[in-house]
Write a structure and sequence with these properties.
CATH class of chain A: Alpha Beta
Helix content of chain A: 25-40%
Number of domains of chain A: 1
Largest interface: A-B, 60 and 60 residues
Radius of gyration of chain A: 16 Å
Distance between the termini of chain A: 25 Å
Largest sheet of chain A: 4 strands, antiparallel
Order of helices and strands of chain A: HHEHEHEHHEE
CATH architecture of chain A: 3-Layer(aba) Sandwich
CATH superfamily of chain A: NADH Oxidase
Strand content of chain A: 15-25%
Shape of chain A: globular
Oligomer: homodimer
Strand order of the largest sheet of chain A: 1-2-4-3
């Protein structure tokens, strides 16, 4: 089995992170992998907001919790880095394109020894007045971009290493 | 740069395939990578229909062309293998989950020296009476599953090796 496939089969979502910072060099590698995800008609109409500032990270976590039915105090599981993926509303593959970026981010993080997890509710957060304010400060139009997912990243505290089996009967051959 | 990231940065969509068959062993490796994609709440409610039968492949291509505004005679670009990804309508992350499977399929294919391309209109095809018939023959409920994407796979005839630049200004840091 080659390294790329091995990386896909061994990635698991991490739900408990250490507070330790992740170097910008590593974050940049992960972001670059995300930018190379395919997109409908190669339009590349997705963007990544890389958040490492503690105050903004905490604000986004609080906003996320507002829309979390499970009402977790920190839906980001203590991760110090959040890569918010948004995509243009003006294409036909908004969610598809954003999701492909998310997968590359998660896979790249894992390949570099980091834990990651897709945290949902990016749509709700960036349609909330406080989320829109964050976008506007960055010069991003909330009318154009919609949140697809938040990829939280960091060094795993407790990694879920249990080899959860894949569900059966998901493959059909003709 | 590690092999997993290198694989992500060098993958490109292939739009011209040789007719040469792909071995079942290779197809199975690609499918397995797809099954290990993350999913919302780890529900794994996506399925893969692996099509290698020429008649069914041609039928799916024809059905796809029916909904293709570009009216390509073969929207599958001569690829001999089509991996149709569908996901349950009864979850909140139907398109997201299916898209994550698609990315793993494309990345795994590339890591094994194969070309791949996301071909859209899986939704339309499997909501068409002829598409529903294919699902029903496999015992798949068209009420439950919706098409997300078709990953066509094969040996590249002409590979797009041009290093198309990434668009600028897609990353924001806070």
């Amino acid at each position: 089995m080659n390294e790329a496939i091995k990386n896909m089969l061994t990635r698991r979502s991490c739900k408990s992170f250490k507070s330790d910072a992740v170097s910008e060099e590593i974050i940049d590698q992960i972001i670059e992998a995300g930018l190379y995800a395919p997109s409908g008609m190669n339009r590349q109409e997705s963007i990544i907001i890389a958040v490492t500032d503690k105050a903004v990270r905490d604000k986004l976590s609080k906003l996320n919790a507002k829309y979390d039915w499970a009402k977790r105090p920190d839906p980001f599981y203590n991760a110090p880095v959040v890569l918010c993926v948004l995509a243009s509303r003006n294409i036909h593959t908004t969610v598809e394109d954003g999701s492909l970026v998310m997968e590359n981010l998660m896979l790249a993080a894992h390949s570099l020894g980091l834990g990651s997890c897709w945290i949902h509710r990016a749509k709700e957060v960036f349609e909330d007045p406080e989320g829109i304010e964050i976008l506007e400060k960055l010069g991003i139009s909330a009318d154009e971009y919609v949140g697809v997912g938040n990829c939280v990243i960091g060094y795993p505290d407790k990694m879920n290493t249990a080899d959860k089996p894949r569900k059966e009967n998901r493959v059909y051959k003709i």
